[in-house]
Design brief:
- The chain is about 55% helix and about 15% strand.
- It is α+β, with helices and mostly antiparallel strands and about 325 residues long.
- It has a 4-stranded antiparallel β-sheet with strand order 1-2-4-3. Strands 7-8-10-9 form a 4-stranded antiparallel β-sheet.
- It is rod-shaped.
């Protein structure tokens, strides 16, 4: 199952639910944030992570690149809400149909970038901004939840245990090391721990801890994905308990068979030597019942014979002793 695709769908739907308050920096959990501002914060993070800027003289082009057509169409809808300019679909011939791009240009791109505190023209000057200051401002204003929703949409790759994969795993991949460190710092302050690794031009935050993954998803208000994860955790715990009980039963059964085998070997030895025939009727009855019920436990055998488990143990011990003497 494609849990990353499911997560993206969930992120686009979960706008009204909020996780419990976790820190003073998230006071009110964003509950007082209007829908339009939530969507703008979401789009701001996507612009930082999926957007690239091309500048030629005074002309500026903002390009978003996505892995699938559905993502491009979804984000085009949000872009149209926050710009009066045209949103262009661009297909990159070099990469084929696997790369889907959106573009907005000139003053429309510049106005949007300026509102998001990203690199833009301010009069005659081109202002460079890495977006980290804007990220931190969302923490102070209690708006981080909705910004982080965009981070998850843009950077997350999610996997839960299924037929093809046995572990929990969440990757957040960034091209900007400083920005990645800023996200990791926010998560660590919430006691959510991730491992960082860098490969070529990308840096990744990774977690394989289901509890931390649940917290990260909740922080992005991905309610459906949190419920899905909790359901999988509960099922795995139930399956593990069933396996433990099965293993316990099998171990006890093997122990019962091994013990029974010891007594049966002693009884057969006594039969072969003729010594059992000379034993009293009670001992012969117990030996016969033991052989006929070779997989019965001591408790079950005692119930069949109508005697106590202690008495049965004493009689069987006597048979063992007779076999050793023989």
């Amino acid at each position: 199952m494609d849990y990353t695709k499911q997560l993206k769908s969930d992120l686009l739907k979960s706008w009204d639910d909020c996780p419990p308050e976790r820190d003073d920096a998230y006071q009110d959990g964003g509950r007082d944030v209007g829908q339009e501002l939530k969507e703008f914060l979401f789009l701001s993070a996507i612009t930082k992570l999926r957007g690239s800027i091309d500048v030629y003289k005074k002309s500026i082009t903002l390009t978003y690149e996505f892995d699938c057509k559905e993502d491009a169409l979804d984000i085009a809808g949000y872009l149209k809400k926050f710009t009066d300019g045209d949103v262009f679909f661009v297909f990159d011939g070099a990469k084929g149909e696997d790369a889907f791009k959106l573009q907005i240009k000139d003053r429309f791109a510049n106005d949007l970038l300026k509102r998001m505190s990203l690199s833009h023209f301010d009069g005659e000057n081109f202002v460079c901004d890495d977006g980290i200051k804007y990220l931190k401002s969302t923490l102070k204003d209690g708006k981080f939840l909705w910004y982080f929703k965009g981070v998850l949409y843009s950077a997350a790759k999610l996997q839960f245990p299924d037929e093809s994969y046995s572990n929990y795993c969440l990757h957040l991949t960034f091209s900007d090391v400083a920005y990645c460190e800023a996200i990791a710092d926010v998560l660590s302050k919430l006691d959510i721990y991730t491992q960082s690794s860098q490969r070529k031009s990308a840096v990744t935050l990774q977690s394989r801890n289901c509890s931390d993954i649940a917290d990260i998803l909740a922080l992005g208000v991905a309610v459906g994905s949190v419920l899905e994860l909790n359901s999988i955790i509960a099922k795995r715990e139930s399956d593990n308990e069933f396996n433990r009980q099965c293993n316990f039963y099998v171990a006890n059964y093997r122990k019962t068979v091994d013990v029974a085998k010891k007594y049966i070997e002693a009884i057969e030895k006594l039969e072969h030597s003729g010594k059992l025939e000379k034993a009293d009727a009670k001992l012969k009855a117990i030996a016969k019942t033991r052989k006929e019920n070779n997989d019965a436990s001591m408790q079950e055998l005692a119930q069949i014979l109508g005697i106590s488990k202690t008495s049965l143990s004493r009689y069987l011990g006597k048979l063992l002793k007779m076999a050793e003497e023989d």
